[in-house]
Amino acid sequence: MPSIQKAYAKDFELIYPLMQEFNNPLLDEADWRALFAPHWPAPQDHFGYYIEDDGRAVGFLGTIFSQRMINNRLYNFCNLSTWIVKEEYRGMSLMLLFEVLKLKDYTITNFTAYRVASILRKFGFTELAVSVDVFLPLFNPAGLVSGIRLYSDPADLTSRLQGDSLKIYQEHAGLKGRYELLEKGSDQCLLVFDVVKRKHLPVARIQHIGNPQFFAHQVNRFAHSFCRKNRLAGIFVPENLLKGNSTHPAMVIPQRQTQLYRSADLCAEDIDSLYSELQILGLQN
After folding, report:
1. Residue 278 pLDDT more than 60?
2. Residue 142: phi, psi to the nearest 5?
3. What are the CA-CA distances from residue 175 to residues 72, 178, 193, 262, 264 (Å)?
4. Is 114 a residue whose pLDDT tops 80?
5. Distance between CA 271 and CA 19 in Å, rounded?
6. d(Cα 193, Cα 63) in Å, to the nearest integer?
7. Distances from the Cα of 244 to the Cα of 18, 85, 169, angstroms
8. Measuring CA to CA, which residue among 50, 97, 70 is closest to residue 262?
9. Strand partners, 57
10. CA 9 – CA 16 distance, rounded (Å)
11. Calpha distance 161→169 (Å, rounded)
């Protein structure tokens, strides 16, 4: 008789054959195993839910738990990852989701929801961002006298970052994101990003902006030097990360990734894609 079980680190070997069915050549066993390790302080000690039948794992929904201080209040987060169920057990797929929805006072996110978006929307999930602002590395003479300094060396980041930005860097530095600190005088802005291909060109996909107001006011002054330093063709920023600060992108395009969330207390502008499978797996969707 199939049953739903919590997935702990000891269950990885049982569940790993399911993960291999994703046939992702960019991920190996060590990558998948990283989903079964604690990366951040969290109120839960398990890593998802699985369907067990006759000693086999026939379905799995991964959960990545974290806690974040937002607007001077501590919130619990659960990021969904790796939802897979063998075809003959698909009728039990929602039972995995229901286990997550039983969690009280959690903001639930899914940053790779393109295959399950229609299901999640039926249970109150909504889009984080429907559009992306694109900034191109156009030369701006104002950048020569802007006074903005860029730092990415770990020693510089550790010594210069302060407060929440330092905490974020320390909690993510061993994972697969990239980091750039922008400084002008006493103002700082930490960018967390990954590099993905768009139209066969490498671009920065921004996952976190430490100081959205600074970013919005200065991006067209540092875009050229940032892209040149990191060998990028552009900077892609989901609209929610700007927190309503107006800016002047080269273009605005639809959000390619379906990123959904469900929260009783937070809005899209309060949420970024840190503390998620994007940093653990380095997904290139």
Report:
1. yes
2. -65, -25
3. 26, 9, 12, 25, 29
4. yes
5. 27
6. 22
7. 41, 39, 24
8. 97
9. 52
10. 11
11. 8
Per-residue pLDDT reduced to its tens digit, 217-258: 999 999 999 999 999 999 999 999 999 999 999 999 999 889
Q: Which two tokens stand for residue 120?
A: 């999640």
For 165, the enclosing helix (H) or strand (E) is helix 163-172
Q: What's the CA dihedral at 232, 81, 41, 182 to 10 degrees?
A: 10
Radius of gyration of the chain (CA): 20
The β-bridge relationship of strands 187-198 and 73-85 is unpaired
Rounded to 5°, angle at Cα 176 from 175 and 181: 90
Tell me the C-alpha to C-alpha distance, in Å, between residue 60 and each of 21, 38, 155, 209, 263. Answer: 12, 18, 39, 32, 23
Say if CB 50 and CB 59 are below 8 A apart. Answer: yes
The total number of residues shown for the chain amounts to 285
Helices (H) and strands (E) in the chain, counts: 8, 14
DSSP 94-113: HHHHHHHHT-SSEEEEESS-
Phi, psi torsion values for 210, nearest 5 degrees: -70, -30
Q: Identify the bridge partners of residue 73 per DSSP, sorted by sequence position.
A: 70
User: From CA 78, how far away is CA 63, in angstroms rounded?
Assistant: 6
The identity of residue 259, as a single letter, is: Q
Q: What is the pTM of this model?
A: 0.93
CA distance 103 to 94: 15
Cα 268 vs. chain centroid, distance in angstroms? 13
Q: In what order do the strands lie in the sheet with 187-198?
A: 149-151, 178-184, 187-198, 201-209, 235-238, 131-135, 251-254
Of 165, 175, 166, 264, the closest CA to residue 209 belongs to 165
